[in-house]
Amino acid sequence: MTGDIVEAAKFIAAGLAMIGAAGAGVGIGLSVQGALGGMARNPDAYGNLLTNMILGIAFSEAIAIYCLVIAFMMMFVV
Amino acid sequence: MANLFKGNGPLGIKHRWWVLLFIILNIVSVVLIAPVLPHIQVAPENVSHDPLFSLPVLGDFYLTNTLIMLVLVDILIVLLALGVRNAVRDNALSPKGIGAAMELAVEALYNLTETTAGKYTKTIFPWFATIVILVLVGNLAKLIPIGETFGVLHETHGEGHAIRELWAGGPVTLLNEKGDYGIIPYFRGIPTDLNFTLALALIAVVAIQVVGFKAQGPAYLLKFFNVTNLFKKPFFGVMDFLVGVLELISEFAKVLSFAFRLFGNMFAGAVLLFLISSFAVVNVFFPSFILMFEFFIGLIQAFVFGMLTMVFMAQATKGHGGEEHAEEAHAA
Q: Which residue in A41, B31, B135, B313 could disulfide with B302, CB within 3.0 to 4.6 Å?
């Protein structure tokens, strides 16, 4: 019984840890929005904007990845 | 570019029946040998039973499967280098094949460095290119289709799977039933090991400091211990000093963010691939899509790792003394 509770707590904790991914989603959306707006106004800047957009996405995504690492640690390590 | 993709049709797929053959092979293999969900763990598995060697304080060192993969990746990179050397040896104006591909990639990376780093391009570019190539080959070697499926059989005492011999006396496969055997794969992608990413992050961050010292000399320390204005303008001087301390902290945060970004992305990809492959119905075609996605992610992450190193190095070469308070790229 206690083992089951610990197991359930692991899954709940992993799920809770992933809440942080919401913020990263908003961040990625905002950066893509900005880059697409810039591309629409100035199509010549496409390549430059794309590179920087992907960099920015990687930065925002890193936050979600931290949550994911924590969730993995909950499920597969502890 | 043109001589890269010779042959008929898009991307030179001359023999597109191969694709059909692989699809049929996929279905047949999935039906004959149903994939099972492997045991997932964050730390790399030990292939050897006994430690390779022991050090007094650090403890035992085992032969892990990521270490075997690292050797494979190194061999691949050396082969790549030899191939490029062969391609450019005869001083042709336009190298062919692998030489042309690498020329394209290296030229793109060099131009990118030049726009960011200016006159320090020759110092920074080798770091950038080395990191990109190592991480890229490491990320893509993880995707070799049957790479992580064969390995040593070991007993798991009730938590594993049952086994079956493929033919009498032949190799065994795991079944989708409870049993007490598991497989420790011989190969596992190097970025799915936190040791690799952390070591690479430490190398990158130390190299950033070295480049900073090379460019500015001892004045580089002013970035962290900013005492220039401390006595002239007390209030703003103290503010500058605190900002410098924040910079110092962000250097340590860079190590963590570098390491966890690469590790998290790649490990998540591996787990996703394991899960999708072990589901009953979707394991015929969906792993291919996941593999394609992982190819893209591996490319992006290798580029991001190198690019961030390059940008931080370029920032370290610029003095922090007053004239420009450009955006402080605190490591995300």
A: B135
Q: Let me know if residue A58 belongs to a domain.
A: yes
Number of domains comprising chain A: 1
Beta bridge partners of B178: B161
Task: Report d(CA A65, CA B9) in Å as an integer.
Answer: 39
The answer to the question of residue A16 being in a domain is: no
Residue A46 placed within a domain: yes
The answer to whether B37 contacts chain A (CB < 8 Å) is no
pLDDT tens, B173-221?
A: 777 777 777 788 888 889 998 899 999 999 999 999 999 998 888 888 8
Residue whose entry in the numeric block shows the structure tokens 């963590």: B256
Tell me how far CA of residue B43 lies from CA of A15, A36, B66, in angstroms.
21, 40, 10
Smallest Cα–Cα separation from B149: which of B116, B189, B122, B114?
A: B189
B261: nearest CB among A51, A65, A77:
A65
Whether B108 has its CB under 8 Å from any CB of chain A: the answer is no
Is-contact B220 B211, C-beta < 8 A?
no
Look up the ipTM and state it. 0.77
Q: Which string of b and e fits B135-148 if b means at least 16 CB within 10 Å? A: bbbbbbbbbeeebb
Residue B247 is encoded by which pair of tokens?
């910079």
Please report whether residue A6 resides in a domain: no
B254 with B262: CB under 8 angstroms? no
CB within 8 Å: A69 and B40: no
Q: Which domain holds residue A38?
A: 21-77
**Helix, strand or coil for residue A37?**
helix
pLDDT tens by residue, B78-121? 999 998 888 888 776 777 778 888 888 999 999 988 888 888 88
- Which amino acid is located at B185 in the chain? P
B267·A63 Cβ contact <8 A: no
Question: Residue A25 belongs to a domain with what CATH number?
Answer: 1.20.20.10
